[in-house]
Structures are given as C-alpha cells and as structure tokens.
Protein: Short-chain dehydrogenase
Organism: Guyanagaster necrorhizus
Amino acid sequence: MPGRLEHKVALITGAGSGIGLESAILFAQEGASVLMTDINLKAAEKGAALIATKIPNAKVVTLRTDVGKEEDIKAAVDKAVKEFGRLDVMFNNAGIMHPADDNALNTEERIWDLTMQINLKGVWWGCKYAILAMRENPTDASKGLHTGGSIINTASFVALMGAATPQLAYTASKGGVLAMTRELAMVHAREGIRVNSICPGPLKTPLLMDFLNTAEKRDRRMVHLPMGRFGEAIEVAKGALFLASDDSSYMTGTDFKVDGGLTSAYVTPL
Ligand code: NAD
C-alpha cells in the first residue's frame, strides 16, 4: 500500500520534540521525504536517528533553523528543494511559551517581542518561502505531484478562547497565526496552495509540562478538559498528517481543532 505522503517532500519546524517530532516520524512512515529543522540541532538529529531505526528506507535530513530568523527559514526551504527537488508540505510548527509571559501589566516588552518573533513572524516567513517554492514544484501527474502544496501552521486552542491563567503574548501570537492563515488561504487558493491552522489542546509535551510543574497548576487546567486528560503529541501529528495529505484536498483556511473537545465545553463531565 502506498503511503499517504508517497513522493511528497515535507519540511517541519520544531521537529526535535513534541508535535514536530511525532509528525516527522508519521510523515516518514507515510512515505514523505522529510527535512527536520529545529533550533536545537542535536534534538533533530536524535529524532532522525530514531526514524532511521524505525523505518530503514526513510529519507530524512536535518538542519539547524531558528524560525525567528528569516534567513534561516529561507535556507531551510532551499535545502528541502535542493535535497529532494520540491516542497509539498510546510509544517510551521515551532513555537515558544515563555515562562515570563503574563498579563497586560506584567509582561515585559522583550518577552512580547520574542514571542511574536518566533510564533508569528516565524510562521509568516515559513509561509512566504514555502509559497515561493510550491509555485515552482515540478509536476508529475503519474505520481500525483503538482505545483502547489499544503501549508500547516500550528496555532492553539488559546487562540479560540480566553484563559484566566494569562500568557498574553502567546495568546495574541496564536490569534495572529489563525488570522494570517485564513488570509493566506484565500490569496493562494487558485494556485493549489492550501493553508490551514491546527489548534492543539493542552498536551503532554515539554512546552506545557515544563510550565505546569506543580500538581496545583495541572489540576487548575485538568478540570476543564472534557476527556479528563492532556493530549498526546501523536494525536496532533495525526491531524497534521491529514492536513498534509491529499485526503484534505478540499480543505483550506480552516482552524482544525485537535483539542479533546475543550473549545466546545461549557461544563465538563464529572
Ligand atoms: P515542544 O517544546 O515539545 O517542541 C517545540 C520544539 O520547537 C522544540 O524542539 C524546540 O527546540 C523548537 N524551537 C523552539 N524555538 C525555536 C525556534 N526559534 N526555531 C526553531 N525551533 C524552535 O513543543 P510542542 O508542544 O510540540 O509545541 C509545538 C507547537 O504546538 C508550538 O507552536 C506550540 O505553541 C503549539 N502548541 C502546543 C500546545 C501544548 O500544550 N503543548 C498546545 C497548543 C499549541
């Protein structure tokens, strides 16, 4: 059985951990050639080595990329095209949640700027260079390859609902990702470039668990989770795989929620 990403080329940012790592594994299993990028090159390399043990013929390369730097993102897209000849899937996934991010009164401007630089500008640049590359994709109808592609931008459930445990810069940056994604989806729809957001709920990844480092902090959130548990990175990666593949060929501009029902909750089950 051919994989769902057979012959496709994917670039994933923040691929050294959490959602990015699980997506790299899944995409490679489904036949994609994958460029795993991360600001932490060692983590990306460790992930690539893990994939090599799981999938002997996997086509995976790594690159140190700081999504807060436009030249790094351009270099990453150039590498994907040079290595594999095209770019079909751009997963703008890297993001930070700074421990000093707080409410309107306590958040320092440098924390605001850093968060926007990585979470919002990084996604903009990822989209920009992906679009330029996807326009140039060679076509090969026999392999189902065409110009265009699928861009997936990681937002968050906090872009859809307010929290009384504020992280103002993070929330605003993710709201920006949703708004930007919708507009890009419209502008590039006729070029066969689909642009969707994925909105994870709270997950058991280092990003959140390093922050929720006490039972009190975890319990404060847990009561609001309809399924009574935090999500797993692999559960979001499966959503990303759907958006990356042609299975979602009539989807663009969507806020794709993988949140265990959180954003539909008023009260949750006892
Ligand atoms: P994670 O901390 O497990 O992984 C994030 C990866 O991004 C790390 O490998 C890190 O090195 C990398 N990274 C950080 N800054 C970078 C930069 N400037 N350039 C390139 N790479 C960088 O986190 P995760 O939970 O997998 O989060 C992935 C995405 O999902 C983020 O955008 C995050 O905001 C979003 N998200 C996470 C949750 C959650 O609960 N974990 C919920 C909603 C949204």
Summary: Residues 13-14, 16-20, 38-40, 43, 65-68, 93-97, 118, 154, 156, 200, 202-203, 205-208, 233 surround nicotinamide-adenine-dinucleotide (CB under 6 Å).
